[in-house]
Design goal:
The protein is of the alpha/beta class. It is built from 4 helices and 13 strands.
């Protein structure tokens, strides 16, 4: 999948050049792959996010594998916490009897399952939880994570991310949209008839 341009995004105190990628004839995105930007980027992003979370009494961070993991680790470290919980989209032996929710993301064709390891429930039950992911776009992954955290007795007090993408997530989250704590925002795009890159999905 070849890039058709570059979009400069501000993410907290940092700036990144993101490749512009076509997902379909009518939808183009600035693609953020967290693990491609190194330890220094994740460390600073974690500090920036921790600044947004520090007054919320967060007791544990829950993240969605895999792209949310670097942010979760660094935000956990910056908040002075010592534990985090990862939700998985790939079935593993220790998740055979785990809690789960169906999920579909903007960059994944097939519906998946988001899985919560039963052995980790005590780390979340009765705790104030920040759910962290790399990008909140359609809201599919973060909504599934919210349902799982509430199902096991956690209290979500924030939904942290590097960036929000477009506006669909607001409708998906509904009354929970106010929980979002983002370090930046990026638009969706489409190509105009004249070949110009335009913000927003194609009418």
């Amino acid at each position: 999948m070849a890039a058709r341009g570059i979009y400069r995004a501000r993410i907290g105190s940092q700036e990144l050049d993101l490749p512009v990628i076509d997902l379909s004839d009518s939808l183009t995105i600035a693609l953020l792959i967290t693990v491609d930007h190194g330890i220094g980027f994740a460390e600073q992003a974690g500090r920036d996010l921790a600044t947004k979370l520090e007054d919320l009494g967060v007791e544990v961070i829950v993240s969605v594998a895999t792209m949310g993991i670097p942010l979760a680790i660094e935000a956990t470290r910056a908040l002075g916490l010592d534990d985090y919980v990862i939700l998985h989209k790939t079935q593993k032996i220790h998740l055979a009897d785990g809690e789960w929710e169906a999920v579909r993301s903007i960059t994944t064709d097939a519906q998946q399952r988001l899985l919560f390891d039963r052995a980790r429930i005590k780390a979340v039950e009765g705790k104030r939880v920040a759910i962290v992911d790399d990008v909140i776009s359609t809201g599919g992954s973060i909504v599934a994570a919210l349902k799982l955290v509430r199902k096991v007795g956690g209290e979500p007090v924030a939904l942290g991310c590097l960036v929000t993408e477009g506006e669909q997530w607001r409708a998906s989250l509904g009354d929970d949209a106010h929980l979002v704590q983002a370090l930046g925002s990026i638009p969706l795009f489409h190509w105009g008839d004249d070949g110009q890159l335009l913000e927003g999905s194609k009418p």
